[in-house]
Amino acid sequence: MAGLATPMTLRVAVTLGLPDRLLGDGASIDELAVELDVAPVALDLLLNHLATLGVVERTSTGYRTTAYGANLCVDAGNGLTDLLRLDTAGGRAELAFVELAHSVSTGQAAYPRRYGQDFYADLAEYPHLRESFDRQMTHRFREQIPRIVAGFDWSRFSTIVDVGGGQGSLLAAILAAHPGMHGHLVDLEPTAAEARHTFSAHDLDERTQVTAGSFFDPLPAGADAYLLFDILHNWDDEHAHRILSRCVEAARPVGRVLVIEGVGGLRANSQSDLDMLVIFGGRERRIDEFRALASSHGLVLDAVTDLTDQRCLLEFQFAAGQ
Question: Taking residues 174-179, what's their average pLDDT?
Fold first, then answer.
């Protein structure tokens, strides 16, 4: 379980584009080495291990991708390339695990220690990382969105603000299922611009608004509900309090705050906990931790709904007299 050779072999192979390049008849080592500007002997060692794993197979002239290895191709539709490539947000972030000891010692994210700045600063500075992250998030939620839409009575709310809503896939699905609802999405540019395209593609322009901004800044006020989908677990308590305070500020006096994410002890796993710690300095909070977090803002937990095998919805309302 501790060996690093196999996971790094897969990551380097995907970064070099080998599964795509070796489809069909494949190619020879010398031919590939020239194309990719890599050392032929080292490339042969890499491909030999990929053959051991069943990702490629030897031919009379070199190597070619197997049916199993085709799962690592760009068009495989499983999102693996954005998780494995060393030059994408996901692949880059996972390498921060080499600094896990730092996170365990300090309780802080390892990502800034490895790269010199936090994850979101990297996304802001490098557009290709932000683009890959947006793709990763859209793919990650695709299969769960129908169950999230069907598993909760969204029609109770006439207006909903999706705080940090990404490219708008979830909000679009909720509104499509409930024609009487209106939605407002808040996220940073240029992700917000992609959300506008999403809403237009679903003929939702007349029922949606998009604001380019941060959830650390004032949010659009007066909506019935404020949705935080996979947001709080990315942040430590200090930043989670800041996000909640903005939601509460906008939701008063009668709006609800809805939190969807993995919940420790219910719909979260130990690997996700470590991912949140190492990359962001966050964690998958337990119910009592959510209650404590919310109570500081005059919120009480009204209901917990199991939506999928990975996520719950926690519904918060203002305490009496707040």
Answer: 97
Separation CA 130–CA 289 (nearest Å): 30
Q: Would you give the distance in Å from CA 130 to the centre of its chain?
A: 11
Q: What percent of the chain has pLDDT over 90?
A: 88
What is the reported pTM?
0.87
Inter-CA distances, 202 with 152, 170, 193, Å: 21, 12, 15
The residue written with tokens 């710690």 in the block is 277
Parallel, antiparallel or unpaired: strands 299-306 and 312-318: antiparallel
Instruction: Please identify every residue annotated as catalytic.
Output: 233
Q: Please enumerate in sequence order all residues whose Cβ is within 8 A of that of 37, keeping only pairs 6 or more positions apart, or say none.
A: none
CA atoms lying within 13 Å on the CB side of residue 174: 28
- Measured from the Cβ of residue 132, the count of other Cβ atoms closer than 10 Å reads 22
Average pLDDT on 91-107 reads 96
Distance CA 112, CA 90 (A): 15
> DSSP label at 286?
B
Across 204-233, b (16+ Cβ under 10 Å) vs e yields: beebbebeebebeeebbeebbbbbbbbbbb
